Amino acid sequence: MAKGYWIGRVDVHNAEDYPGYLKAAQPAYEKYGARFIVRGGKCDGVEGAARARNVVIEFESYEQAVACYNSPEYQAAAEIRRANSEGEILIVEGAE
User: Which of 32, 38, 56, 85 has the CA that lies 20 to 30 A from 3?
Assistant: First the structure.
C-alpha cells in the first residue's frame, strides 16, 4: 500500500502565537502516526511562488493522511494555524 503525505507551504504572520498550533496539532500527529520528513529548513523557490516554511509529513497510507487532517484534534489546531499564517496543505499519495 502506498504511503500518504501532507505537503504544507506556509507563511507565518504571527510568530508569537504560531507555536500554539504546533503544540495543539501534536496529539493528532501522534494518533495517526505522522512522521516529519521536512520541517522548515532552507529552501529555494526556483519556479513559481514560494512560501517561507515548507513541511512534508509521511503517513502509513493516504487514508491515514486524510483521516488525520479531518480529525477533530487536527481541525482544532488548524484554526490556530489559519489565524496566524497563510498557506496551503496538499494530501498526496506516494509512489508504490
Answer: 85
**Residue 59 is part of which domain span?**
4-43+51-93
Number of domain units in the chain? 1
Alpha helices in the chain (DSSP H): 19-31, 62-70, 72-84
Which is nearest to 35 in space by CA: 63, 71, 76, 4?
Answer: 4
Q: What is the pLDDT of residues 16-25, one digit of tens each?
A: 999 999 999 9
Which of the four pLDDT bands, split at 50, 70 and 90, describes residue 5? very high
Q: What share of the chain is helix, strand, coil (3-state, %, to 5)?
A: 35, 30, 30
Q: Name the pTM for this structure.
A: 0.93
Residue 30's CATH number: 3.30.70.100
